[in-house]
Amino acid sequence: MESKSVDKETLCSVVRELVDKVGDIVQNAREAVGKSVETFKAEGFPKYLGPIIGLYATAFSKLNCSTYEEFRDLFQSFFQHIDVQDLFEEITENDNDWDDILKEADKKISDGFGSQLTVGTEAPLDINVTDVGSSKDITLRDMIGQENLVLVFLRHSA
Measuring CA to CA, which residue among 109, 104, 101 is closest to residue 27? Predict the structure, then answer.
């Protein structure tokens, strides 16, 4: 990796802010899933994931990183310092916590479908999906026979 001219203090300052803000969002998301998975499903990505993406983008910009690999490499270049190791552990914990929240929400939302479906398995026709044209929840059964039907199934990623 070429030198990015970022010193340890800048790395620590930027990442401390990132850890704190992402940690708050992750905690709020955890509480939201605990209260109502349906509300989290409706609000989750714009309310939680969107800001997290923005925070990472800002941090990457401040640290002159364009990829997560460069971000990790920057950590590695200062990893001999305990405070950098601690921050790396905290950001990794936030990432793992976010993944756990999504898995918990997915489990609650899926009603067991996730463990039953594999590539080539016939989908349950009574599963709810969102029609992006109308923003209404409908079932797959309601969609069968529609002209020019395109289905896009999105999974969360972090």
Answer: 101
The residue behind tokens 């971000």 is 71
Distance CA 60, CA 88 (A): 14
Beta strands (DSSP E) in 3-155 are 128-131, 136-139
Its pTM stands at 0.67
List, in order, residues 6 or more apart from 144 with CB less than 8 Å away: 125
How deeply is 97 buried, as exposed, middle or buried, from its count of CB atoms within 10 A (0-12, 13-18, 19+)? middle
What pLDDT, in 10s, does the model give residues 66-82?
A: 999 999 999 999 999 99
Q: What is the dihedral of CA 42, 44, 45, 50, to 10 degrees?
A: 130
Alpha-carbon distance of 92 to 18, in angstroms, equals 12
For 76-108, the pLDDT digits (tens) are 999 999 999 999 999 999 999 998 988 888 888
